[in-house]
């Protein structure tokens, strides 16, 4: 089966969400996805898209993987791209789709002239870590991800 990479369009939103849910299950967070198809359509394909999404698909338009990215700004580097998720459906892993998607992200970043592409990987996801390191990525194990979720934001504001 042959796969090609293209930029996602609004009509891909349902398949994109299906892959996001599949990733949440894989990452042991099956109930964490609050995002809807409508959110993806509005946020990614409107007048001022919040993200760019590349998809790996078959000629029959079955989406086998996605790479969702957006701009960030580094106080040390300037414009950078954040790879929020690189997802390959479990049934299509081992077919080179992750490489196709990562290649597209890196080529896109180069075309934009950004100074860095960054992303996170779970410390227990050894196959992904090995994949990224094989591609030359620096997996920085001495950094911790810090987040305030929606409730954390509300709690924070209540204490200001």
Descriptive terms for the model:
5-stranded mixed beta sheet, Aminopeptidase, alpha+beta, 5 strands, 160 residues
Total strands: the figure is 5
Structural class computed from helices and strand pairing: alpha+beta
| SSE order | EHHEEEHEHH
Strand order of the largest sheet: 1-2-3-4-5
CATH superfamily: Gcn5-related N-acetyltransferase (GNAT)
Shape: globular
Kindly report how far apart the N and C termini lie.
56 Å
Proportion of residues in helical segments: 25-40%
CATH topology: Aminopeptidase
Low-confidence stretches: none
- How many helices? The count is 5
CATH class value: Alpha Beta
Oligomeric state of the chains?
single chain
Strand content is: 15-25%
Average pLDDT works out at: 96
The overall number of domains is: 1
What integer value in Å does the Rg equal? Answer: 16 Å
CATH architecture: 3-Layer(aba) Sandwich
For the sheet with most strands, the description reads: 5 strands, mixed
């Amino acid at each position: 089966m042959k796969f090609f990479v293209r930029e996602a369009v609004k009509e891909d939103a349902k398949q994109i969400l299906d892959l996001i849910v599949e990733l949440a299950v894989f990452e042991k967070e099956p109930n964490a996805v609050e995002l809807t198809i409508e959110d993806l359509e509005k946020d990614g394909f409107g007048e001022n898209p919040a993200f760019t999404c590349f998809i790996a698909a078959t000629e029959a338009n079955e989406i086998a993987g996605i790479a969702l990215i957006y701009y960030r700004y580094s106080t040390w580097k300037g414009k950078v791209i954040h790879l929020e998720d690189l997802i390959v459906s479990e049934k299509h892993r081992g077919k080179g789709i992750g490489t196709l998607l990562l290649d597209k992200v890196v080529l896109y970043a180069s075309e934009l002239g950004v100074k860095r592409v960054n992303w996170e990987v779970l410390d227990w996801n050894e196959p992904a870590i090995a994949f990224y390191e094989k591609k030359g990525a620096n997996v920085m194990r001495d950094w911790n991800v810090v987040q305030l979720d929606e409730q954390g934001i509300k709690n924070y504001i209540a204490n200001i």
